[in-house]
Amino acid sequence: MFNASISDAIPDWFGNLFRTCSAIHLSKNDIRGKLPMSVEDGSMSEFKFSSNHLTGEIPKWLCNLKGLNIFDISSNKLSGEIPSCFGELQELKYLDLGNNHLYGHIPNSLGSLSKLYSLHLQNNKFEGGLPSSLQNLTRLITLDLSENGLMDVIPPWIGENLASLRFLNFRKNNFFGDIPLQLCYLNDLQLLNLANNNIFGSIPRCFNNFTAMVNDSITGRGINSAMYEENIYEDIKRESYNWRDPNTTNVFAFIE
To answer: Within 13 Å and on the Cβ side, how many CA atoms surround 167?
Structure first.
């Protein structure tokens, strides 16, 4: 029931769906209210509830959905912290919590999600530094932490360990220090946005090696577009650009 013009509060029986359904797709509706505080364990693999009006915190019972591959509750009005037990979702490939009112630190436990391809935490109120455990996400293709209050240096391990990255967005945070040369190891990088931070120093000369930004031969390694449609939004001169396919090319670097 994606984009089905549903306008209603979450009903009392909604929690029963987690016991009987393998996938729930209710994105782009006008559904309001809070997710159930407790439900029976289920075998759900996909939960897409983006672009609605959910409020309250992310319930911890979601960590019991051990077979979850896709979890997208972006563009709602959720608050609170990310439950640390999310690290138990070992089958998770796509995690999108962007465009909410979440706060606190990014939990170390997310580094346990070894199968993760896409991590979206943009436009929330996260603070502190990047947990070093994220360097374990070696399959990661998209890392979007833009528009938060993160304060840290850009760690060299991003270039050393996250070799599959194509989209790296740290825009509008409080990152400081210079740009590590190790970012030049990201041979498949198609989008790099470090704008609106406190970065100083020179731009590494090796940035001219980012040939994937102009090369149309990059393949969609690791992405199953039938399962999940990746969305990357960028603002260039007050215009919004949306790269919806991870094979998209001719993307730029922003280092204001």
So the answer is: 27
Going from the C-alpha of 117 to that of each of 49, 143, 247, the distances in angstroms are 19, 9, 14
Q: Which amino acid is at 177?
A: G
End-to-end Cα distance, the chain = 41
Rounded distance, CA 98 to CA 95, Å? 9
CB 208 within 8 A of CB 185: no
Tens-digit pLDDT profile for residues 186-217: 999 999 999 999 999 888 888 888 888 876 54
Distance CA 99, CA 28 (A): 14
Note the pLDDT tens digit of each residue in 92-131: 999 999 999 999 999 999 999 999 999 999 999 999 999 9
Report how far residue 56's alpha carbon sits from residue 102's, in angstroms, rounded to the nearest whole number. 10
Check: CB of residue 183 under 8 Å from CB of residue 208. Answer: no
Rounded CA gap, 187 and 211, in Å? Answer: 7
| Rg of the chain, C-alpha, whole Å | 18
Neighbours of 237 (CB within 10 A): 4
